[in-house]
Amino acid sequence: DTAVSQTPKYLVTQMGxxxxxxxxxNLGHDTMYWYKQDSKKFLKIMFSxxxxxxxxxxxxxxxxxxxxxxxxxxxxxxxxxxLGDSAVYFCASSLPNTGELxxxxxxxxxxx
Amino acid sequence: DQQVKQNSPSLSVQEGxxxxxxxDYTNSMFDYFLWYKKYPAEGPTFLISISSIKDKNEDGRFTxxxxxxxxxxxxxxxxxxPGDSAVYFCAASEGGYxxxxxxxxxxxQVIP
Lengths: 112, 112
What we know:
The complex is a heterodimer.
Chain A: E1 4-7, E2 10-13, E3 19-25, E4 31-37, E5 43-50, E6 53-57, E7 64-70, E8 73-78, E9 87-94, E10 102-103, E11 107-111
Parallel strand pairs in A: 2-11
Antiparallel strand pairs in A: 1-3, 3-8, 4-5, 4-9, 5-6, 7-8, 9-10, 9-11
Chain B: E1 4-5, E2 10-14, E3 19-25, E4 32-38, E5 45-51, E6 56-59, E7 62-67, E8 72-77, E9 86-93, E10 100-102, E11 106-111
Parallel strand pairs in B: 2-11
Antiparallel strand pairs in B: 1-3, 3-8, 4-5, 4-9, 6-7, 7-8, 9-10, 9-11
């Protein structure tokens, strides 16, 4: 009964492909996030959703499209994958008005 | 434009001694500061936080100190234990906590 779960944990794919990463949280939180940790280990916010509505979009290329079918799920779809998309992608959730994020285990994407 | 800086990539400490992890920030609008701990192949987990109206917050072996005039915070772990060996991320947010900005992390090794 993992609080924030992501699938898949590992993803290896060719440049130009389209792929999705799924995230689900069972904490009852209203706010969910996608963070990217690149090769330099920077952990940067990509998107934030509050109750299925997009509230933060941090100048991420249009090839990245988050989708929140309900407040417990936030999926990340990436079109036309590029080498620079290789990273670990973390999903997270939080209660309102708190910076205490609950992270998933991460999904390591490798683009060849 | 790193707004949260952790200038020490790594730190080694003997078991039982104090570990001091440092963090500097540049954004004077940050009003909430957090520390996260990350083990390999896991997502970061929340450790401790402090509001900008305080200068110290303590939770068991962990204490965070905030020096607003110097835009500096530190995490003290005493006594250090081998299980504390992990990467520690300093983080900060402003007005509403929706966007948490992370530092690059400091890898702590506690030597038995």
